[in-house]
Amino acid sequence: MPTNNIRKAIIPAAGFGTRLFPATKIVKKELFPIIDRDGRVKPIIQLIVEEALSAGIEEIGIVVQECDIEIFANFFKTLPKSELFNKLSPENQEYSQYLQDLGERVTFLTQTEQEGYGHAVYCAKEWVNDQPFMLLLGDHVYASETETSCAGQILAVYQQFQQSAIGLTIMSSEIIHKAGCVTGVWQDSDSILSVTEIYEKPDLEYARQHLRVERLAAEQFLGIFGIYILTPKIFDILAETINQNIRQKGEFQLTSCLEILRQEEGMTGYLVKGQYFDTGMPQFYRQTIIDFPSLSR
């Protein structure tokens, strides 16, 4: 197997969280709490950082608004004040040091203007430094159905094919208009896909005509899971999109640039053996709180 040269991961976390307003007026959505499967109450961003590290990632770049750096830094890089720290159990005092250790892996990158998901990724260009990297959505958490984490599974696909890899999940027709959708040709199994099109939030008629995938049941499609391994070519494509001011719904989007990347370099899709949990909308966040802690590791 090729040597793992994926050292860095990007987590965009600079959005306003408008769908979770008014709670996001005071708490960043990436800091909303979830009870993990070990019983600890963790902010969403910690679960995503741990997901990346589970795949062997060494450094995490979290893209935030400049005014929010202190909030995230207080969590990852600062011990509780002494009066609170002394009230913690010995176990939680030790856990506070674990959070400090996580923080040593974390770098904060700034997005000065909220210009869309693609723009947030582009803000990490200099930090990535012309290397392939992992990208994880800032409002999804993941549970693997195997001993290998979801991020680790996608990384293994990149190592095998040495081209950009995108995690996939089966989605019903009822929700496909809310997600990126992928089609392609299955390779030697029902989990590896040679991607032939990526399309952002298709209406159902378009999906039926253009995005059907062999072997899936009727009214089932392949949606984007929320974890990617991308080559640095994506930054060139994003730069051109930004320089030419090509926007979708007023913002610079990632999915259309992923389609260009696919056309230029090829892309492998992988049907992840695991579940994603979207915490970015109230009804999905509520379901995550219910379902996520009960899943076995």
From TrEMBL:
SUPFAM superfamilies from the UniProt entry: Nucleotide-diphospho-sugar transferases
Keywords: Nucleotidyltransferase, Transferase
Entry-linked Gene3D superfamilies: Spore Coat Polysaccharide Biosynthesis Protein SpsA, Chain A (3.90.550.10)
Molecular functions (GO terms): UTP:glucose-1-phosphate uridylyltransferase activity
Catalytic activity: alpha-D-glucose 1-phosphate + UTP + H(+) = UDP-alpha-D-glucose + diphosphate
InterPro entries assigned: GalU_uridylyltTrfase_bac/arc (IPR005771), NTP_transferase_dom (IPR005835), Nucleotide-diphossugar_trans (IPR029044)
EC number(s) from the headed UniProt entry: 2.7.7.9
GO terms, biological process: UDP-alpha-D-glucose metabolic process
Domain Nucleotidyl transferase: 8-285
Recorded family membership: Belongs to the UDPGP type 2 family.
Protein name as it appears in the record: UTP--glucose-1-phosphate uridylyltransferase
Species name: Limnofasciculus baicalensis BBK-W-15
Lineage: Bacteria, Bacillati, Cyanobacteriota, Cyanophyceae, Coleofasciculales
